[in-house]
Amino acid sequence: MLGHQLDKRASTAIPAPISVAPSQKFEGFDGPWSTFPIQIGTPPQSINILISTASTQTWAIDPQGCVQSDLSNCSTSRGGFFNSNKSSTWSQNVDASNGLFPIDLEANLNVTAVGAYGDDTVTLGGQGSDGPELQKQVVATIANKAFYLGSFGLNPQSVSLPQSPALLSSFLSNLNASNSIPSLSWSYTAGNQYRPGPVFGSLTLGGYDTSRFEPNGVTFPFNDSDVSRSLTVNIGAMFLHTNDFDTILENSNQSLLAAIDSTTPYVILPLELCQQFEEAFGLVWRPDVQAYLVNETLHSTLQTQNTSVTLTLGNSSTIPGEGFNISLPYGAFDLIAEAPRLTNSSRYFPLMRAADESQVTLGRTFLQEAYLIADYERKNFTVSQCKWDQGAQSHIVAIRRFGDDKPSTSQGLSSGAIAGIAIGAVVAAIIVAVLGVSMWRKHRRGPKDSKPKHIDVVVPELDSSGNDPYKLLGGDMSPGLPHSPELEGNEHKGHELEASPKPDQQDEGEPPPEPLYELDANTRRSQAMTSPISFMSDRSDATRLHQRQQSDPVSLSSAVSGPPEGPEGPEKKLSEPISPMRARSDAIRKLQREKSDAAPATE
To answer: Which fold does the domain 1-181 belong to in CATH?
Structure first.
């Protein structure tokens, strides 16, 4: 069981990245270096460690790492001890005698040790930091001084120990499995003490700090062939600079692959490149101590000459202009080695000669000026030049799990998505309603050129020019036009009604018109609302109405005041004025009655 952090697995919320605070100290016998605090065991024991970008495990210094002949500050200089015998939750690995296994992570660099392996509770951060805590994590205690400080491994790969069949999962992979970080990723820069501040290291799990680097847009795939060298880049060129000269280093091999590994402090290069460093900077290799020692005279010269080293990195040396530069000032190479690394403290230049290409490495020296982001979700990493803005505020950005930024069909919508859909639905409903009203009104008016098959029996009013809005005579019907105001009584324009037609006025060869059935006012209105009739069947009557208007006109003003007299005498005058629509209706009915009277009687 991974501990209380595993309870977060059920949560669907995306967790925030974890920024591990540095110890605010520079420690080590070959630096010094910015360290980070962790706690191991129950009760927790606090130690300061370095970051290893290659290791998958947590290493702590065992109390046996300091003996009586060591300096009195041995325990402090090694970042403190973890005593597994004082932890109630320590469980020794039983796959080997006393739990001892070889540590061969840096075996290719001829650096080895032995560790006592077991499981225990590990917490990132010092006491009171409330950092993430996981139980039963792999821990190795080391006494050998080859690894002077303990380390915290960032590599999430599961590995097995020699002669042990079990795969051991890393702290980072377990942290990701417990949903404590947004993804299987991290970012790191080593920090340095030569710039104003000083600048402590920066470690973020599940994200990166944009205030610490200048992005360059280049990504590198992981090197899957070697877990310990998964962060491999191509060095396309190297430039050495002083105030007096600039030198381009020449490499017999066109391609120079280098692993980025913060476990070692050195920049390890082929011999021919190291010799060009020696010539340009006046360095002298000391075989007895396996180092380039720097005396005060050389130190002063390199410092005053503004010495710097620039590396051009890329994915392939065959593509011109593909790479980007990482520049390191002389301060990045101005380190101090102390006992037990050297008997007497001395400045040294952290350049190491590689025995073969498998040893070419860019270590912590390089990461003082480079910011590294490793994304195991997408299997790539980036290297960027550090940005030095003393007043910049930290800005942490999460690296999402691969696929988290894609739409999911298995999970419900977020509240924001639901709100957006609701707002969109309301807007869509309003648009539909407006379009519906507009179409309804347009349907009532009808298109100007349309010719409907049915109209109401209610006759429309005349427009202000005296023309019939339906244009009945021309056959161009345009129902739905708005009614015009009635004409004033002194205006006599427009169609005038004539007296009753005579049978001999009927056009020859024209069939007799079909009768229009007269309805009372209430019945006529009801039928007009519910039973539209065909306009074409009434067209002959409308034509005759027009002919009567031409031969025997009656003023519109008289039609408004009352209906014209019929054969049976004047009708009773209405108490209220009659509208033009009513006048035309009465005229049509009168015409129908006249036709009915003229028709022969049937028995």
So the answer is: Cathepsin D, subunit A; domain 1 (2.40.70)
Where along the chain do its domains lie?
Answer: 1-181, 206-404, 454-598
Q: What is the pLDDT of residues 545-559, one digit of tens each?
A: 344 444 444 333 333
Give me the half-sphere count of Cα atoms (radius 13 Å) on the Cβ side of residue 511.
6
CA distance 280 to 270: 16
CB-neighbour burial class of residue 467 (10 A; exposed 0-12, middle 13-18, buried 19+): middle
Helix or strand run (H / E) with residue 427: helix 415-445
* Identity at 440, one-letter amino acid code: W
Q: So what CATH class is 206-404? A: mainly beta
Cβ-Cβ contacts under 8 Å for 514 (sequence gap 6 or more): 537, 538, 540
Round to whole Å and give the CA distance between 408 and 405: 9
Helix extents (H) in 214-355: 271-281, 296-304, 330-333
pTM over 0.85: no
**1-181 and 206-404 have identical folds:** yes
Q: Per residue in 161-178, pLDDT tens?
A: 877 778 889 999 999 999
- pLDDT tens sequence across 512-531: 443 333 334 343 333 333 33
Tell me the C-alpha distance between 400 and 16, whole Å.
10
